[in-house]
Design a protein that fits this description.
1 helix; 205 residues; 61% strand; 5% helix; mainly beta
């Protein structure tokens, strides 16, 4: 069960956003990721609970940030309920998308598990609902994911395979790289792995 800590920052101006303390694990029905978010001052900021099935589809998403909450799943595309800090209103939403995304590294792993692009294959296009900081506002985005290559590193616990994905935002043409080792993000825009207590879990074949 990988457990560790990411530091998060604004990918454009590098303003520190805090840290994400996480643990994740594969299971008989798929993969689950749970984390607690802290701000730059160390105070509690929110939480992430994401579960996907063996095909990478979200079967449960629960996010909390700055008092806002979103609960969602893959139903008729993706469906969610978003509630305000006061708890006075809850708004339902639905979009013809494959999954959710957001600032948590969990969503990068989940999207890679969903698409599983093959090395050398053309980029795979995917529509996602982005839950944006700081109020978890839903926004539909289109991306293209391509497996650019894999590198094997020798470690004390055995070979570690690092996959590099090239991710393109189709609305702007902006391209960035995401480096994954199994279910752990090693590097991505706005994300740095600061500490890892246990080795990553490999994707199922």
């Amino acid at each position: 069960m990988p457990r560790g800590r990411y530091s998060l920052h604004d990918p454009h101006d590098h303003t520190p956003l805090g840290e994400e303390h996480f643990h994740c694990a594969p299971g008989p029905s798929g993969w689950r990721y749970v984390s607690q978010l802290t701000g730059p001052d160390g105070g509690h900021r929110g939480s992430v609970d994401l579960a996907v099935d063996e095909l990478g589809r979200p079967i449960r998403v629960e996010l909390a940030l700055a008092g806002w909450q979103v609960r969602g799943a893959a139903v008729d595309g993706v469906t969610w309920v978003r509630s305000d800090p006061a708890g006075a209103e809850a708004a339902e939403g639905n979009a013809p998308a494959a999954a959710f995304t957001g600032t948590s590294p969990a969503f990068l792993v989940a999207t890679a598990r969903l698409l599983r692009p093959a090395a050398g294959a053309a980029a795979t296009r995917v529509r996602l609902v982005a839950l944006t900081d700081p109020v978890l506002a839903p926004r539909t985005v289109d991306q293209a994911w391509q497996l650019a290559g894999s590198t094997v590193h020798d470690t004390d616990s055995g070979p570690l395979v690092v996959d590099e994905y090239r991710v393109t935002a189709l609305d702007t043409g902006e391209v960035h790289s995401v480096h994954l080792a199994g279910d752990v993000v090693l590097a991505a825009p706005g994300v740095e792995l600061e500490h890892l207590e246990t080795p990553p879990s490999a994707f199922p074949a």
